[in-house]
Specification:
Length: 607
Amino acid sequence: MKKLFYLLLALPMMLAACEEAPVNEPTGPNTPDGPDGPDAPVVEEPKLTLTSEATLEFSEEGGEGVITYTLENKKEGVELSATCEADWVSAPVVGETITFTVSANEGEARQTKVVVSYETQSFEVAIAQDAKVETPAPTPDVVEFEAQYFVGQYYGDYYTPTAGNYYVHLSDVGFDDSGDYKANGQYITLDIYAPLYEGEKGSYVPLPVGTYNLDKESTMAQWTIDYKYSAYTKTDDKADGDGLKFDEAQLVVTESDAVFTAKIGEMTFKVTFVGQAVVANVEVEKAEEVNFTASKAWGYYYGDYYNPGVADNFYFFLSDLGVDADGLEVANGVYYRFDIYTSMIDKANGIAIPYGTYLIDPTESMEPGTISYSASLYYIMDEFGEEAIDGGYLNSGYLTIDETGIHGEFSIAGVKHVVSYEGAVEYIDVTAELGGGDEPGGGDEPGGDYYSTLTSDYTCNLDDHTLYYEYYGDYYEIGFRNWTFALIPNDFEGDTVQFDVLASPTSYQEFFGDYTINDTMGGFTALPGEIEDGYMSYCWYYTNDGVTMAPFVEGTVSVAPATGADASVTFEVKDDRGNTITGSWSGSMLPASALQSTRSSVVFRSK
């Protein structure tokens, strides 16, 4: 009993000692809190997922490819990789997306893959590219039809005393009651010069039997087709269409038919008409020969500005009254204007047109010894000196300048004009104003390279004008439809403005809109004015005096429908000297082909 009691007495002390002694707890992976134990924190594995298409397809042109993905639970120090074994795919670049470039395919269709990996995870993206499509050579357009109509007018010797003029049309659908083109038709317009008709003249005159060939020199010689006023037009469902000039053309006329063959670029033409080729007799009584002795002669010298290194240019005038202190024509004055190109002169020896004979040049070659047709005019001013009331273009002829004076003979609207002058000639050097100088084609004066001749802001007078427009399709091959339109005085004298615009890619017969002048070639922009090949191209202001002009280099122009009129135009632009030019107009609008019907040489200068 004592022994047991002793043990019983000792037990509480033993238990207390156990509670106070340190405990050595076990360690290892299988303990409750170890990495494999039930209470260990969870560490999730990386997860790589493709979020774009599993197959990327490319055309034969190739292009840039993009693969998108997500990567969860990325580990420190471990990088994503992307590889492709094909040499026609660039090395993939890994970032927030994976990018690569597929090169153009010159052969059969091909496939490869891009492999994207992260540690043990990966996915593949198939790359498929189309085979190169062999584009067949374009088949030349062939225009071939039987004309149901052969119509036109006989003007007799109105345009030249040595040949009869026949203005004829071959068409499959003919004309409407107003004499205008019909919708969805084809028209061959030919300005023909033939022997004068000597038979009995009734309401109709037959076109002489024979062969007529295209004359690009526009000499008005017998058996020729004049280049300027001959064209092919195909109209759309609104009866609109652009006239295309012929590169080659021939008309063979027999007693029983007429066969026309031609080329325009790769287009070939064969148009036949069965029947006798006759036209309406509209002979116009001509005025008698005009003999004019000028009392004033002057010219503006432009150097070789328009034909650098080849020819010098003089804008030359003969008149009975001359100009006022501001250089403007005066009331009731008679004026002959010549756009003359000469051999290059040495200014150190004085400025003057070299002696010689200068011929009217309808081809506008700007070669020495020529007078450019489109800027050479005869006109008479009204009693106020504000506008021309009579005149015309110098269709053919010559001007001789020698030690005895000046003598010329010209055909103007079929009337022979004989002009002469004896006395001093005043020449004005305007090369500095155009950036001109001793260097071919341009100026050697700092800051002198300006096309504009305006010296201050200007508001255009557009009171008596018509809007003419022309459609060129996707002329610049950039996806925007191109139109050129111009506000032209009805008497072809005075302020003229023209614009070259890029309209909506979906609009065919509609160019209404707001345009900004710049060279971005974007939608609803207009191209800044430039001189190209000696012509004013794109957006310009000018008058028929050939001196006043200004390119539009910035600003806006708006074209819109107008109440009581076809359209309205407003513009506020700047020229290359910083002058502000404004104008507004509303009225009638006509296709540019309507200008041909007036037999006027006024044309758009943008193309």
